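--- STAGE predict ---
source: upstream dedup step, 1 unique chain passed
mode: sequence only
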Amino acid sequence: MASILFHFATIEVDLDTGPDIRDITDDLNHMVVRSGIENGQVSACLIGSTGSLTTIEFEPGVVQDLKDAINRMAPKDLTYAHELAWHDGNGHSHVQAALLGPSIVLPIRRARLLLGTWQQVVAINHDNRARTRKIEVTMLGV
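--- STAGE serialize ---
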C-alpha cells in the first residue's frame, strides 16, 4: 500500500486594483511536481476577504468578459452597508469576492493538475487597491 503524502506551500501573487486576474496554473503545477504526489488533490485558498480563486480560459477576451460580469454583479457605484460603517470604498470588493469564493479543489493525476485543455486556475483581486495576495496550498495523495 502506498503512503499518503501531504505537501504544504504558499504562493504570493501581486495583483493590481480589482478586478485584476492572474493565471496561477504553472505555479500550482510546479508545486505538484515538487510534492512527489502522482494522484490526489490540491486545495488552494486565497487569504483575505476581497480576493477569490476560480478557473477560466485565460485569454484576453474571456478575462475581460469575467471582469465585466464581476462588475455587473456588484458594481462600485452602489451603496453598501460596509461603506456606511467603514468608509473605505471597498464594499463591492467584499461582495464580489464572496460571490466567487476564496478556494478551489482540483484533482492531481499523473503528477499534474487535471484540467481541461482551455482551463486555467486564476487568482482575482477585487479590492480598490493593489494587493499582494497569499494563496495557501495543501496537496495530498499518493
